[in-house]
Write a structure and sequence with these properties.
Elements (H helix, E strand, L loop, with lengths): L2 E6 L14 E2 L2 E2 H10 L6 E6 L12 E5 L11 H11 L4 E5 L8 H12 L5 E8 L4 E2 L2 E2 L16 E12 H7 L7 E6 L10 H13 L5
Parallel strand pairs: 1-4, 1-6, 4-5, 7-11
Antiparallel strand pairs: 2-3, 6-10, 7-10, 8-9
Length: 217
């Protein structure tokens, strides 16, 4: 079962300027997820999908560069446009879509999720964080009743996609345009492993974490 991982990269990030090339623990942010993917034994090929070839010299050994059209670098570009473009270029049975903004995700977590999908028991997988607190949506409590307030230890948890990775077979994306199927495996990660760098304060938190521990590979 051919398994290909790809990391979409653009260099014109708006919320955190130049974040994909910004140094974290002495190397560009994007390199952390790329090194992690290279250490997952079930992955056959790891790609960077980027319009700017200037990043080639920065890529870890074993990572392939695939140039994408610069039109995909627009702020308005939807994820599905990028996934469509990549899956047209690279054929595989399973895809691992990963993001550079998740430097702390572990190779073992991705490997375990791949094993679940390969077994046939699950048709896809994604990383998520379990939040066990009082949540609201649409102006109403989401996971508890105002008339019967539970203890936080027993409240129904809410699961949030971390966007660190999504695993899906070719037919799920190309046939249905979905990266999560009807029987997904939810890889629950802790707050550190699930950290997603979207804003400057997220990068500051990543620097604090990285200073206190070696980045997992």
């Amino acid at each position: 079962m051919k398994t290909v991982a790809f990391v979409p990269i653009r260099l014109n990030s708006q919320r955190v300027a130049g974040k994909n090339l910004r140094l974290l623990s002495g190397e560009p942010l994007m390199c952390h997820i790329l090194r992690t993917l290279c250490r997952v034994p079930e992955i056959d090929q790891v790609y960077v999908f980027c319009s700017d070839e200037s990043i080639r010299p920065l890529l870890p050994e074993g990572v392939r560069f695939l140039r994408r059209d610069a039109s995909l670098d627009r702020d308005e570009t939807l994820g599905r446009e990028i996934y469509d473009a990549f899956t047209r270029e690279v054929d595989a049975d399973l895809y691992v879509l990963a993001h550079a903004t998740s430097p702390f995700i572990r190779a073992a977590t991705i490997s375990d999720a791949l094993g679940r999908v390969r077994s046939g028991e699950y048709d896809s997988a994604f990383s998520a964080e379990c939040i066990r607190t009082f949540a609201w949506y649409g102006g109403r409590p989401l996971n508890y009743s105002l008339d019967a307030i539970p203890r936080t230890q027993t409240i129904e948890p809410v699961y949030i996609e971390t966007s660190a990775f999504f695993i899906f077979p070719r037919e799920l994306w190309c046939g249905r345009g979905r990266r999560i199927g009807d029987r997904p495996w939810m890889a629950v990660v802790d707050r550190i492993e699930g950290l997603d760098i979207d804003y400057p304060e997220d990068f500051a938190m990543a620097e604090i974490i990285a200073a206190g521990q070696r980045l997992p590979r």
